[in-house]
UniProtKB/TrEMBL annotation, chain A:
Source species of the chain: Cytobacillus eiseniae
UniProt cross-references to Pfam families, sorted A to Z: ABC-3 (PF00950)
Protein name as catalogued: Zinc transport system permease protein
Record InterPro entries: ABC_BtuC-like (IPR037294), ABC_TroCD (IPR001626)
Family annotation (CDD domains): TM_ABC_iron-siderophores_like
Topology in the lipid bilayer: Multi-pass membrane protein
Primary location group: membrane
TrEMBL record, chain B:
A Pfam short name: ABC_tran
Similarity remark: Belongs to the ABC transporter superfamily.
ABC transporter domain ranges (all copies): 9-244
Lineage top rank: taxon: Bacteria
EC number: 3.6.3.-
Keywords: ATP-binding, Hydrolase, Nucleotide-binding, Transport
Species this chain originates from: Cytobacillus eiseniae
Protein name as catalogued: Zinc transport system ATP-binding protein
Length: 285, 265
């Protein structure tokens, strides 16, 4: 396997991209989960799908667009979708979660129309849905790298503000922090990470790479920084394990990655249960 | 120990109404540095409205408020004022953050954007946790603590930015009765040892009457403001002198709490 990676550029692209998104998806996922916004990731990934479908359609109908990387259009849609969600959340002040199904169904609707206009599915679209090892180009890798560096730097710089906003939004506002701007930057980062991650895991499974490692981490971590650390560790394990398995067994990488993440989650729940039991038992002695 | 020369809050002729109802009428109240003031009054007496006005969360309709000698609209040093709300029930107790991390978040505004905590900031955080007697719990997740301990974490979060005045809105809601006394004892320590002025809103004066230095009785009007001993004296003689015609609703409420807790103190 290692020699293959050294030999084939497409495998290098896939593994390097995998390593990167194994870091950023769970990293931003921690903030998404603790702020109870997990479904936003789902909504935005479906909007990203609409963008990709639109790009594939344009590519098919107009020669002019043939060189355009569908990921870019996906990003544009994803970021636009995130702005719509924010707008809708202020329109429906008392039903803020309503913004999510509205954007999610809007995304699927648009995606379906674009797909049918492009005369149906093709293998390219399938790889966007479930992820692909062979589809990542060098250009994809560079784009994803740039986005990831941007996201990581922003999270480090805004860590205090993001933490306070996540833990206690009311207090954040009362203490005079630019809560709105920080939230705005956050939601755009989410949109970008989704668009960057979908090449490997696929649109339908992006949100699970953002939430499953975090769900496992919360069970065992002490504190927020440790939660981030374990989330990234679990995310990275799932991605690398998933990619290797899927390459050897010729499976869709997205599915393999997510199933490994599910296994890690189950394992942590069981371990935690056992730890609680043994500590109870030792207390009784 | 008493430094009763500088007023930190001056409330002058303040009235406030929500739509059709007057909540506060012509309130005049000057709060001196170093006091531990308990503001008491029944539900709907305008206590929270007064707090929100002082914190700048509501806009003044009538009258004026000065904080540390400055008009509230020109006041910039908000980090001098720490606020602890009825928090214990309202945050996500499953949040994966340690006591240390939560207390550190009290420095967010003071440090400013793109700034990181330095050595002395970490020292401040430790000191704040120490002054609420939670040092042994600093690496525990906040969800593992009891309601009273969680409330102390929020006090430490307010303490960490070196406030001169701390405003607490019914801080013992959600704290079990056994721990209420030690909670108030800790506030007393902050007031006496660190010299932080405290303004505490409560409807439960009995539990705290031996700690506070001053009392203000509010029910739309300010019915009484003075030293705690004077208040106790007045109360013994004649409740109606404090509240006037509002006596019927209020005596019951106060007497009840007073006797209830009076027995245990």
């Amino acid at each position: 396997m290692i020699s293959n990676i050294l030999q084939y550029e497409f495998l290098q692209n896939a593994f390097l991209t995998g390593i990167i998104i194994g870091i950023i998806a769970p990293l931003i996922g921690v903030f998404i989960v603790v702020r109870r916004l997990s479904l936003i990731a789902d909504a935005l990934s479906h909007v990203t799908l609409a963008g990709i479908a639109a790009s594939l359609l344009l590519e098919k109908k107009f020669l002019l667009f043939s060189g355009l990387n569908p990921m870019y259009m996906g990003m544009v849609f994803s970021v636009t979708g995130s702005l719509f969600i924010e707008k809708l959340r202020t329109v429906y002040k008392h039903y803020q979660e309503l913004a999510i199904p509205i954007i999610l169904s809007g995304g699927i609707g648009l995606g379906a129309i674009f797909i049918s206009l492009a005369d149906g599915f093709n293998t390219d679209l399938f790889s966007y849905l479930f992820g692909s090892v062979s589809a990542v180009s060098r250009l994809d890798l560079w784009t994803i790298l740039v986005i990831s560096i941007l996201v990581i730097v922003l999270i480090i710089l805004l860590y205090k503000e993001l933490f306070l906003l996540s833990f206690d939004e009311e207090h954040a506002k009362a203490s005079g922090i630019a809560a709105k701007s920080v939230h705005f930057i956050f939601i755009i980062m989410v949109a970008l990470v989704i668009a960057a991650s979908m090449r490997i895991v696929g649109i339908l499974l992006v949100s699970s790479l953002m939430t499953l490692p975090v769900a496992a981490s919360i069970r065992i971590a002490k504190g927020f920084k440790q939660t981030i650390f374990y989330s990234v560790l679990f995310g990275e394990t799932s991605v690398l394990g998933g990619l290797m398995l899927s390459y050897h067994l010729d499976l869709a990488p997205g599915g393999t990655i997510v199933i490994i993440a599910v296994f890690i989650l189950i394992l942590t729940i069981l371990l935690k249960k056992m730890a609680v039991k043994t500590s109870l038992a030792s207390h009784q002695k | 120990m008493e430094k009763q020369n500088k007023p930190i809050i001056e409330i002058k002729n303040v009235s406030y109404r929500y739509e059709k109802e007057d909540v506060l009428e012509n309130i005049n109240l000057t709060i001196q540095e170093g006091v531990f003031l308990g503001i008491v009054g029944p539900n709907g007496s305008g206590k929270s409205t007064l707090l929100k006005l002082v914190l700048g969360l509501l806009k003044l309709q009538k009258g004026e408020i000065q904080l540390f000698g400055q008009d509230i609209y020109r006041f910039k040093d908000w980090h001098h004022i720490g606020f602890v709300s009825q928090k214990a029930n309202s945050f996500n107790t499953g949040f994966p953050a340690t006591v240390y991390e939560v207390v550190s978040s009290g420095l967010t505004k003071k440090l400013g954007l793109f700034k990181f905590m330095k050595k002395e900031d970490h020292h401040k955080v430790t000191k704040a946790i120490e002054s609420v007697d939670l040092l042994a719990f600093k690496d525990k997740n906040i969800g593992e603590l009891s309601g009273g301990q969680q409330q102390r974490v929020f006090i430490a979060r307010a303490l960490v930015s070196d406030p001169k005045l701390m405003i607490l809105d019914e801080p013992t809601v959600g704290v079990d009765a056994q721990n209420v006394q030690s909670f108030y004892g800790m506030l007393d320590k902050l007031n006496k040892q660190l010299g932080i002025s405290l303004l505490l809103v409560t409807h439960d004066i009995g539990a705290i009457s031996d700690k506070i230095t001053h009392v203000a009785c509010l029910n739309k009007h300010l019915h009484f403001h003075g030293k705690t001993e004077e208040f106790e004296e007045l109360k013994k003689n004649d409740m109606s002198a404090i509240y006037g015609h509002d006596i019927q609703i209020l005596t019951h409420d106060h007497e009840h709490h007073y006797h209830h807790h009076g027995g245990t103190v």
